[in-house]
Design goal:
This protein is 48% helix and 21% strand. It is an alpha+beta fold. It has 3 domains: 129 residues, PAS domain (Beta-Lactamase), CATH 3.30.450.20; 94 residues, Helix Hairpins (Orthogonal Bundle); 158 residues, Histidine kinase-like ATPase, C-terminal domain (Heat Shock Protein 90), CATH 3.30.565.10. The termini are far apart.
């Protein structure tokens, strides 16, 4: 084979190799950038065009700092020259996570690996770039899923604990009720007790009975049983809820008020569970206005289409925005005592009745918790 044929063959092989390299360069999923030792862009593949929003022609011959945030750009040329002079590696041959900047100014994370090569035209640096945003999103979703799993694990543990506590408390509570009933019968038979004491004993009996009902409803809630729906007179429900919420006020005048729309329909719901929601909301409102010079808590009940709306409004400072998102999640309450279950359980009960519980902060301060419940009975899923 003569010399010309050898040269032609070598040229052909070189052409094929160059074509293959160009094909790999432009079809690579990761971004590939080649720069010289002055930081000027020599090559910019299709993946980089998609990643940064620039055409290759926009950057060829320009300094690579155009695709870097300011804090990186200002130091990049110094890093390159320092490496050329000293051989000290800070990213070359190592790879790490850095920040990059899109044409529109968006800064985003990338994984950058850099290699260097000596060429007839001088030292060149080849950067391989991978967009980390998809991975970051997956990591964020995974972190949220793990947090939710932990939350549900805690709720499950609470369910078991709640069932155990309800069982253990029910026994001494039953004994207390029996003792009170025994004292009441003895007092009525003798006729020697002060009527006021008899009245207090009677109220204590009623409270013990109500506590027993609450424990029974707690057990049903833990066991995921359907509500014990009954026909409820709304005015009576509101009256008893206010009465229970006022316990502990002592001799001070009550500032809890109720306003009911005329001709309200009866409610089909579990009276113990709904009363507990209203008492919880009213007592929370009581605490919210404790430091106000003029305290005001109003329970407004009205019909809203096919729902009854129970709106508890106070003139307190309102709910801080930073805790609003987690307000109805268990264990995230803002109170210094307890585990933040009241609102979480209240919303769960409301939703189990086909309604809901939400918060509305007032524009001039104060807060309104709105309980909505359907007027008609809700069919259980098991009956559908």
């Amino acid at each position: 084979m003569d010399e010309d044929s050898v040269l032609e063959r070598e040229d052909a092989i070189a052409a094929v190799s160059e074509a293959r390299l160009a094909s790999v360069f432009d079809t690579a999923v990761d971004g590939i950038i080649v720069i010289d030792d002055r930081g000027n862009v020599l090559a910019f593949n299709k993946a980089c065009e998609h990643l940064f929003g620039y055409e290759a022609s926009d950057l060829l011959g320009k300094n690579v700092s155009r695709i870097m945030p300011r804090e990186y750009a200002s130091a990049h040329d110094r890093y390159v020259s320092n490496y050329v002079e000293t051989g000290e590696k800070k990213i070359i041959g190592i790879g790490r996570e850095v920040k990059a900047m899109h044409k529109d100014g968006t800064v985003f994370p990338i994984e950058l690996s850099v290699g260097d090569a000596g060429t007839p035209d001088g030292r060149q640096f080849i950067g391989i770039l991978r967009d980390l945003r998809p991975r970051k999103q997956i990591e964020e979703r995974l972190a949220k899923a793990q947090a939710q799993l932990l939350h549900m694990t805690r709720i499950s543990a609470l369910d078991e604990m709640g069932a155990a506590i309800a069982h253990e408390i029910n026994q001494p509570l039953t004994a207390v009720l029996l003792y009170l009933q025994s004292v009441s019968r003895k007092a009525k038979k003798d006729g020697s007790f002060d009527p006021l004491i008899l009245d207090v004993i009677g109220k204590a009996e009623k409270e013990a009975e109500r506590a027993g009902e609450i424990i029974q409803r707690m057990r049903q809630l833990v066991e995921k049983k359907a509500p014990d729906r009954q026909t409820i007179d709304v005015a009576e429900l509101v009256r008893t809820s206010l009465e229970m919420a006022e316990l502990g006020l002592g001799e001070e005048d009550s500032f809890l008020q109720a306003r009911l729309e005329d001709n309200l329909p009866a409610l089909q719901a579990d009276p113990v569970q709904i009363r507990q929601i209203l008492i919880n909301l009213l007592r929370n409102a009581r605490e919210a206005v404790a430091d106000q010079s003029t305290r005001k808590v109003v329970l407004l009940v009205r019909r809203n289409d096919e729902f009854l709306e129970f709106r508890v409004t106070d003139n307190g400072p309102g709910v801080p925005e930073e805790i609003m998102e987690g307000l109805f999640r268990a264990f995230t309450g803002a109170k210094h005592k307890g585990v933040g279950l009241g609102l979480a359980i209240s919303r769960s009960i409301a939703q189990n009745h086909g309604g809901d519980l939400r918060l509305e902060n007032g524009t001039d301060g104060g807060a309104s918790f709105v309980l909505t419940l359907p007027v008609g009975p809700i069919e259980d899923e098991a009956d559908e």
